[in-house]
């Protein structure tokens, strides 16, 4: 029997993950909590085999729980399930002891398969994250480019005027992006904010245009880099 702890602060996703674990005969749900403090308390009281964890929690970062879980139970596997696929978060979580890293577009059956995989010694990673890691390795391993003398002596071009980050997105757009970063669907975001899914899609299109991105993951990453989330 694989004992699983879920740490996720968005109620809809917490229910989704919980249902996926409860539906699997070989899994036992140890707890479903939404804060760093609650996760630590449960880990101190109950042996856990696998932790499914989000990163953006109300009272801290998911990496704090990862470190606590691994220190408490060295054989415990931790799978990050998040919308944050940037280098900083991936590196921090892997260094903390995470054995898997999935983006929140993963389906329930993929979560079940990921839990089974880590217990068999594997490291489930979303393709987009694996590709980012490979690109980083290639970049860090590539030789420095030689700068031609003319380029080295050429005067620097004046930087284009960039609007301050806080003015890029409206308050409503920021709230919508924050909710989508939790993995909620457009319909679920609309239900939370009391607007239609169609209106959410319209806001999302504007967000993509303002941030010059083409996907939800890219929007969350870019907004995080700009300090908007």
From TrEMBL:
What CDD domains does the record tag this protein with?
LuxR_C_like, REC_NarL-like
Q: Name one Pfam family in it.
A: Response_reg
For this protein, the record's InterPro entries field holds:
CheY-like_superfamily (IPR011006), NreC/VraR/RcsB-like_REC (IPR058245), Sig_transdc_resp-reg_C-effctor (IPR016032), Sig_transdc_resp-reg_receiver (IPR001789), Tscrpt_reg_LuxR_C (IPR000792), WalR-like (IPR039420)
Q: Which GO terms describe its molecular function?
A: DNA binding
- Residues with PTM 4-aspartylphosphate: 54
Question: What's one GO BP annotation on this UniProt entry?
Answer: phosphorelay signal transduction system
Task: Please indicate which superkingdom the organism of origin belongs to.
Answer: Bacteria
**Which parts of the sequence belong to the HTH luxR-type domain?**
162-227
Q: Which of UniProt's keywords are assigned here?
A: DNA-binding, Phosphoprotein, Transcription, Transcription regulation
Response regulatory domain location, by residue?
3-119
Q: What is this protein called?
A: Response regulator transcription factor
User: Could you tell me which species this protein originates from?
Assistant: Xenophilus arseniciresistens
């Amino acid at each position: 029997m694989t004992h699983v702890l879920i740490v996720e602060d968005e109620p809809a996703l917490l229910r989704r993950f919980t249902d996926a674990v409860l539906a699997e005969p070989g899994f036992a749900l140890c707890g479903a909590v939404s804060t760093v403090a609650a996760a630590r308390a449960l880990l101190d009281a109950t042996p856990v085999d696998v932790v499914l964890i989000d990163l953006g929690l109300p009272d801290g970062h998911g990496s704090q729980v990862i470190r606590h879980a691994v220190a408490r139970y060295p054989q415990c596997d931790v799978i990050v399930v998040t919308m944050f696929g940037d280098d900083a978060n991936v590196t921090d979580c892997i260094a903390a002891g995470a054995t898997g890293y999935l983006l929140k577009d993963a389906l329930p059956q993929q979560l079940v398969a990921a839990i089974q995989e880590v217990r068999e010694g594997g490291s489930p990673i979303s393709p987009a994250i694996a590709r980012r890691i490979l690109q980083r390795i290639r970049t860090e391993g590539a030789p420095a480019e030689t700068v031609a003398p003319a380029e080295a002596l050429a005067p620097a071009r004046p930087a284009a005027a960039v609007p301050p980050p806080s003015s890029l997105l409206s308050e409503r757009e920021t709230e919508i992006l924050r909710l989508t970063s939790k993995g909620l669907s457009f319909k679920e975001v609309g239900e939370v904010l009391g607007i239609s899914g169609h209106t959410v899609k319209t806001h999302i299109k504007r967000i993509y245009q303002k941030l010059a991105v083409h996907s939800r993951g890219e929007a969350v990453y870019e907004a995080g880099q700009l300090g908007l989330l």
